[in-house]
Amino acid sequence: VNILLHYIKKMFDVKSKILDFHHPHQLLEGLDGFNLELSDHPESLEQLLVDCTDTLKYGVKTGHPRFFNQLSSGLDVVGLAGAWLTATANTNTFTYEIAPVFTIMETILLKKMYGIIGWGETEADGIFAPGGSISNLYGILVARYKQYPEIKRQGMTALPCCVLFVSEQGHYSVKKAAAILGIGTDNVIEVKCDERYVSNTFSKIYYCHYGHIPFCVTASAGSTVFGAFDPLHGYLTHILCICRQLGGGWGGLLLSRNHSHKLSGIERANSVTWNPHKLMGVPLQRSAILIRGKKGVMQPSCNKMHAAYLFQPDKLYNVDFDTGDKTIQRGRHVDVFKLWLMWKAKGTCGFEAQINQHMELAKYFCKVLKKKDNFKLVFDAEVKILLQRRLIEKGTAMISYQPCGDKVNFFRMVFSNPATRRADVDYLIDAIERLGKDL
Amino acid sequence: VNILLHYIKKMFDVKSKILDFHHPHQLLEGLDGFNLELSDHPESLEQLLVDCTDTLKYGVKTGHPRFFNQLSSGLDVVGLAGAWLTATANTNTFTYEIAPVFTIMETILLKKMYGIIGWGETEADGIFAPGGSISNLYGILVARYKQYPEIKRQGMTALPCCVLFVSEQGHYSVKKAAAILGIGTDNVIEVKCDERYVSNTFSKIYYCHYGHIPFCVTASAGSTVFGAFDPLHGYLTHILCICRQLGGGWGGLLLSRNHSHKLSGIERANSVTWNPHKLMGVPLQRSAILIRGKKGVMQPSCNKMHAAYLFQPDKLYNVDFDTGDKTIQRGRHVDVFKLWLMWKAKGTCGFEAQINQHMELAKYFCKVLKKKDNFKLVFDAEVKILLQRRLIEKGTAMISYQPCGDKVNFFRMVFSNPATRRADVDYLIDAIERLGKDL
């Protein structure tokens, strides 16, 4: 515990390095006595403690105020306490029998989220999943099942050629889901974005090939690279007959009265992926898939397999709270408690304040950048990579980069780390300028 | 931390109750000031600590020496320390960039597991997954891709009618995977078991309908209800041309020189699911899917989607260690450290001793039962349910029950809890006798 608390304290200090970079072969070979190989015989307790210290030493401090590399960043200490308790409880959320408190907490959290989206409790179903990609897979799985319930028994060969729509800026998990579900990536129709990186996927349904049946239209609420919001309200109204699936890491934005309008119309989606481990800062991992429609679309129909050894109908208690047969996995890690405890600690208002702070920092960042002549929206690719390498090697800040279409590598700045202050934003801009000077 | 340590200490005391049972509606309404509802405003730190205590109080002590309810049980304190460190590091295993130490640990653990199965390092691929069901899904996904690589782009409609085989005692996740992957549960051929609850799925391939193409044969190494081992060596030799997938929670048995013969022939499987959170007692959750064949079957081919924003090929380091494009999910919780630290603490020999202890307790249990006239292999169903209810209400021991085929409800005894001693086995048998006396 002392090792961990010391690490946390150091991590929040902006002067500490985010990482002490080494190459894979260096770690494989062993660094300063940090030997990762496993042996037949036990190590001493002292050595285990050294191993723990070294594991943290050579890792990446994702809670550091200048860690901007991922959509999920920061370390909420209440969320962390929740994670420690969860690990200690070491149970599984598949039945009320072995996770009575956690399954009820999940019910309460889902109800809260339905309400925030604008759905009534009785007209929605949902579950927490290991991450956004699995949530998106659930959304597409349920959309397919809703249109063609015979899929479960007969498989895709019994169906016509089904196609689904995604914006070219939509998350790649949609294509991955199509490959997994036996739909095939050729049947994912990518729709071009406009200059604001948003897309109106609905308008493209008219251009479907003869014999192709659209069964799912997806939209992004906060795309991965540009953080763009597809116009939900505008087009979702036209496609009530087709299943719509909405994926986005920025569901937390709904908690901010100043910014929730970006997701206006979300209540018309048939399913929503909401990742509290992003904008809401819940420790990894925590995603929710929320399905509109009468309760039970996931359990008694789409995914149920009647595993008699787990989901006995003759139990002591109301088995409505056994969630295991809803899921594509069986066992389910208890990830719900971290979010529940953070919600207790902050209240809905606290999440709102935190999200508003991220949005204000983003505004400040743009304001500062606009005043600088030597920053453009797109950098020269080579310069960009060398710059990121220098930042990683210095270990003082971490920011991600990527190419996109005809745009060469550029930096992606993300604000989801509650520890970030204006001074850290200033530091990052200065560091990029300074390290890039001689390139 | 004090709340958690107090809980752990109490849990290991056999005299403490495993659970303080309440019904879902009681928890929903709130118990003695334990209010699970969420509000707009924050709670005090004092109240949060009370909430944490109550969460543990009304939960199930899965590490209690008399918790036999699930295949995963027990609480390994080194594993728990690993889980706390993992939560504190709060990172994601998809790239070396943000999880350098953990991705290397995963490589080392997988290599160790390939070796134990009997595969060379260069002829295997693998990944840790959230649980056994997802691992089984990976196995079937890769089997399908190997036989029909066009599936990824063209979907199931481009394929002939593919069927797969599973024993009637095989895990239900095989059927679930067939539903998800668009194969359909009608195309899962269930093979009857003999009186030892084992099955030779291979022999049934000859009875395939005309036009049905077998692409995957599964076997169980430790079935969920009976813990039975399908004869791996016998039949796997005959079906080299067909993909074989082996699922089992009891992969840990390979670590015991006395018992590994039960998995003899496992090296001939094309994929193996191994759940260290069962017999090896790693805290939840931790499963591995191991694929035989040249390195890269999962990454460059089956699951890769080229997400430019994460898996840039022009990175600072050797990108072979970026695992994210292997997976069906995107982000991946760091679950690898718990197992790594436990392996360091116990050594391979320590795991062997622990597994041998479980097997000896099982032997002892059978010996005691055989001497008793009032125990039979199958109970009267009604009596069984009432008995389990009485045990749950008393909270002194937890054991699972289920029906199976023509057999009515019976108890399933599981030995995977390292805290269990002979006295706990005696207690359970006595308790069942005592509580069942007046039924």
UniProtKB/TrEMBL annotation, chains A, B:
Coiled coil: none annotated. It holds the Pfam family Pyridoxal_deC. GO terms for biological process: gamma-aminobutyric acid biosynthetic process. The keyword Glycosyltransferase does not apply. GO terms for molecular function: glutamate decarboxylase activity; pyridoxal phosphate binding. The modification N6-(pyridoxal phosphate)lysine is found at K278. The keyword Lyase applies. Gene3D superfamilies: 3.90.1150.170, Type I PLP-dependent aspartate aminotransferase-like (Major domain). It comes from the Eukaryota. SUPFAM superfamilies: PLP-dependent transferases (SSF53383). GO terms for cellular component: cytoplasm; presynaptic active zone. Keywords: Decarboxylase, Lyase, Pyridoxal phosphate. Its cofactor is pyridoxal 5'-phosphate. Belongs to the group II decarboxylase family. Homodimer. PANTHER family: GLUTAMATE DECARBOXYLASE 1, GLUTAMATE DECARBOXYLASE-RELATED. This is Glutamate decarboxylase 1. It comes from Panthera leo.
